[in-house]
Design brief:
mainly alpha; Rossmann fold; Glutamyl-tRNA Synthetase, domain 2; 3 domains; 3-stranded parallel beta sheet; 3-stranded antiparallel beta sheet; 12 strands
Length: about 475
Amino acid sequence: MSQIVTRFAPSPTGFLHIGGARTALFNWLYARHTGGKMLLRIEDTDRQRSTKEAIDAIIEGLEWLGITWDEEPIYQFARAERHRAAVEEMLVRGNAYPCYATPAELDEMRELARKEGRPPRYDGRWRDRDPSERPTDRAPVIRLRAPQEGETVIEDMVQGTVTFPNKDLDDLVLLRSDGTPTYMLAVVVDDHDMGITHVIRGDDHLTNAARQTQIYRALGWDVPHMAHIPLIHGPDGAKLSKRHGALGVDAYRDMGYLPAALRNYLVRLGWSHGDQEVFSTEEMVSFFDLDKVGRSAARFDFQKLESLNGQYMRGSSEAELLAAVEALVPHLPDAENRLARMTAERRAQLAAAMPGLKERAKTLVELLDNADFIFVERPIPLDEKAAGLLSADGRAHLGRLLPLLEAAPEWTATATEAVVRQYAEAQGVKLGAVAQPLRAALTGKATSPPIFDVLVVLGRDESLGRLRDQAA
């Protein structure tokens, strides 16, 4: 076979949603696995709903996920003349015809079908009419002269053999009365002209595949290989909705997920390689093939995604996580405030805290929230649990501990831990009875990275200042 060419063809009527992102990923992986190409086509024929903002959001989402495409993107609307030329070709071949049915007549057809319990179908009334009967007071639509007998068969690389009786597929409209091409026509012409060999998309397009196959045949063109992948459902088995996670890729970025983790999670929605759950990009490309894509709907599970993201965070270097946090901050609701606080000194402290922070967080947002103790100004606010830890006893411990820490010869995790342990032993109390008030006073919270790491991250002066603020 010549080089495999796949495509991702989103409609820019909104963000890049999670199902679209997985479709793009599968196309990208199959192209890379086979040494082929993946092309990007923006299906912007809906002029009312297609916006530059949506196009930018789709491209930005793909780039953030690390999904690249070959060649410049194709814009479908710009190819309308080519689409019309293909219909002229079908008219010459006798595989399309003008239809002058009025909107009122079409409404009657639909109403009759409804009364008779049939799906609405165009009844073919202009299919074989003599040209002399054509009215001159209105422009026609151009319809496909679809086969009426037999079956249209799709040999699908995921779904297997799928058969459609031709009597259930009517003469669909190719050109509207104003000369604009329909989606069905434009997709076929664009896929043919772009040299697409494999169409990989959601299985909600299966009926479209039958109709598009008829258009390919009417034009005398080879039909590309097709693979219709199962849709993504929520954990409850219902169609994916916003409450399940049917959000834009940008929302996952803003929630603090790493692109590599989201990519890994998406590839496992409908595809498997044995029991393996975690894949490097190289492994995904090496292992991915369409014969491992299942037919049943995949289920989206936020908990699994969070757990996987936590694994990726723990496996990332401190420098990688710092870069990811800095890339995220401008997209957060309080970005201006966070950016103002991200001074060179605070950034260095955040880098120093990263080993402890990444062990406790499942998302970058959670990591940033846990790092908030670095950025707060004295006297630091206490949350409810921290305030509870700073009882009279807790504050008394801090007061007695302060001069010992002030006298510490070094300000390292080892040295400060030795001071606190010796104090706890001398007082006859458990380490936690001292460490927890210490944590509350230093961070304003009851949980944090290891407390002796916190002391080092904040530095001697800031740490001692915070302890003085809370000591009895």
